[in-house]
Every structure is written in C-alpha cells, then in structure tokens.
Amino acid sequence: MLLHFNEMWKPVLVMIIVNLAMAFVNVFMKKVINEGMDHLTILTYRQAISAIFLAPIAFFYERESKMNGHIICLLFLSALVGVTLSQYLFLVGLEYTSATLSCAFLNTVPVFTFIIALPLGMEKVSMKSNSARAKVLGTLVCISGTLLLILYKGMPLINPQSHHIEDKATATPSASNLKKWIIGSMFLTAACLFWSSWFLIQDRVGKKYPYQYSSTAILSLFASIQCAILHLIIQRNNAKWILKGKLQIMAIVYSGLVGSGLCYVAMSWCVKQRGPVFTAAFTPLIQMFVTVLDLCILQEQIYLGSFVGSILVISGMYILLWGKSKERKQNALKDTEENQKDEEWHNSTANPTTNKLETSE
Fold first, then answer.
1. What is the CA angle 285-287-292, rounded to 5?
2. Beta bridge partners of 156
3. Which residue, among 108, 87, 80, 104, has the nearest Cα to 255 in the 3D structure?
4. d(CA 55, CA 279)
5. Do 92 and 39 form a contact (C-beta atoms < 8 A)?
6. pTM of the predicted model, to two decimals?
7. Under 8 Å CB-to-CB from 57, ≥6 apart: which residues?
8. For 176, 220, 308, 346, which has the most beta carbons within 10 A of its beta carbon?
C-alpha cells in the first residue's frame, strides 16, 4: 500500500516542489534583468555553478556509469536545445514582458511536446476514439490561447486607473509597449518550442543513460561552455562578466544550485518515471506561484489578455492530458486482454495431453 502510494504521488510531489522553486528563479531573473544584467552572463554562471555542484554528487553516487560517443552527442544536443537556446530566448522574452506572462507561455509546453512528438512517432492520433479527439481539441484550444497571449495585451486588471495616470505621466506611447509585448511573446514562444523538444530528447537520454546526476552535470557543463562562446561572439564587453551587488550574486547562485541543478535532476527523474508529457503537465503551477510573487515582490500589472489567454492555454492543456490519460487506460486494458489470451494459448499448447483427456471424457 505504501509502495503504491510512493509510486503514484512521489512524482507529483516532486514536480510541485520543482515548479515552486522555478517560480522563485523566474522572479529573481526578472529582477536582475531589470537591473541591466546580461542574459548570457546569467546563463554561463548559472550552468557553471550547477555543473560544479552536481559533479561531486555524480562522482560518489553514479561512478559506475559508462558513456560513449552517442550519449555525449545526445547530452550536447540536450544542452543546446534545453538550456542554451531555450533559456536565452526565455530571458530575452522575460525582459520585454513580465514574469507572469512568461510563465503563461510555459503552459504551452505540454501541447508543443505533443505536437512535436506526433511526426516522430512518439504520439499517435486516431480520430475514431474520444481520447484522440480530446487531444486534438486540447491542442487547438491551447494554440488559440497562445495566439491571444501574443496578439492581445488588454487593459490592466489590478488598479487600472493608476496605470492610466502613470502612462500619462511618462507619456509612453501604447503602440511602442504593444510592439515590445508582441516581440517578447514571440521570443517566449520560440523558447517554449525548444523547451518542449528538450523533454523528448531527455526521454531518449534517460533510456540510454539513466543517471540523473551525471547527465545533468554534463549537460550543465556543455551549456556553460556554449553560453560562454555565444557571449564572446555577441558581447565582447568584459565588464558584463562582473556581478554587481548581493542580489545578482544570490540570484545566480540560487538559479544555478536549484534552478539548473536540483530541478533538472528532478525533472529528468520524473521523465524517466512517468514520461515527458506528465512532467510537462505541471508547468501551470509556475504561473500560479509567479503571479503571487509578481504582485508581492515585483509589483507588476496583470493584463486582461494574459488572464484570458492563460485560461485558454491551461484548459487546452488539461483537455489534452485528459485524452492522454484515457488513452493510457485503454492501452493498459488492451495489453491486459492480449496477455490473458497469450497465457491461455500458452497453457493449451503446453498441456496437449490434458486437453485430449478432457475432450475424450
């Protein structure tokens, strides 16, 4: 009973804690980016701290792990797609928008994961079943919500009068704000597409190399090197590498140890235990946590477009997950019936003498 409870609820509890930790990471990142800290500097230090933190743990607990060239190539690709590109684009989008909106886009990750998995043969859709129709409907609703998030900002929901007074005082043209909103939303969409691809790559990595600490440490090392090279190509200003103030140091250390270290280990473990779509399904929790932190710490506005778009995205995502859950139950029932038939056939062929005696009687 206790074993069944652990198998069922342990991944759920782990993903709730992971998303709470990631919410704090997003708020910290928004704060230091507002102070002018460079995106690639953040990622380089963050991944380097993660690699340094996880390397000794991997050495003591997973020293028996063996690698080959194929696994190294997979981990390099995983670092490029899941960290370097996705997190860089996410931070750029975060700069142009808000922490709450950026987390609203993270809710599209399960649907994007499902869409990318279709042509790869990792997901199948047969329109004859209700589960398949639910998955398609959920995908369409989620995409509609994403388009709304990108194209419609709307009025502020919290104290709109003070917002209008602030706009008049600063004389900021709304067209310019809307342009930044759309550009930031496009960066966030691209980041989520790469993030979704990472779940599928990580699913393959987990099957070929089931060592969470080692794989995450190597992934972080590759990502740190990739970000440093990208930084040298794009930003040649050495002053960007210098951290200023306690907040920047604390944000980098926390995001490295927790955000890129422990959280990636936990997510890799959950992908191995329950699959990529299950792991991605908990992303709406980040938005809920960040919305509270956003209002309390950053004191940013929540807009109508973000609110309505988020509801559509979350609704579509859970329609998709309901379809997947129903499909899993149908497949499990089908497998059970096939196993019973195979067992009956095996018993009948294994005891031909008994069968003859029964028929003669």
1. 105
2. 303
3. 87
4. 24
5. yes
6. 0.71
7. 213, 217
8. 220
Residue with tokens 């607990």: 61
* Residue in 104, 13, 121, 114 with CA at minimum distance from that of residue 324: 114
Q: Residue 161 in contact with residue 329, Cβ under 8 Å?
A: no
CA-to-CA distance for 231 and 126, rounded, in angstroms? 46
What 3-state DSSP class applies to 156?
Answer: strand
- Whether the per-residue pLDDT at 346 is higher than 60: the answer is yes
Residues 6+ apart with CB under 8 A from 182: 150, 151
Q: What's the CA gap between 20 and 285, in Å, rounded?
A: 7
Q: What are the Cα distances from residue 34, in Å, to 18, 97, 248, 315?
A: 24, 11, 11, 32
Query: How far, in Å, are 43, 59, 180, 220 from residue 92 at the CA level?
Result: 12, 35, 11, 20
Distances (CA, A) of 33 to 22, 54, 92, 158, 248: 16, 26, 9, 24, 9
CA dihedral sign of residues 71, 72, 74, 75: positive
Residues forming a β-bridge with 303:
156
Band the pLDDT of 357: cuts 50, 70, 90.
Answer: very low
Q: Would you state the structure tokens that stand for residue 214, as one six-digit string?
A: 């080692």
Question: 23-45: per-residue pLDDT in tens?
Answer: 888 888 888 888 888 888 888 99
Measured distance CA(29)–CA(166) in Å, rounded: 25
Specify the residue for token string 């886009």.
105
What is the rounded distance in angstroms from the CA atom of residue 45 to the CA atom of residue 78?
18
Nearest alpha carbon to residue 56 among 261, 250, 246, 247 = 261
Q: What is the pLDDT of residue 81?
A: 92
Q: Which residue has the tokens 């998955």?
A: 135
Residue type present at position 253: V
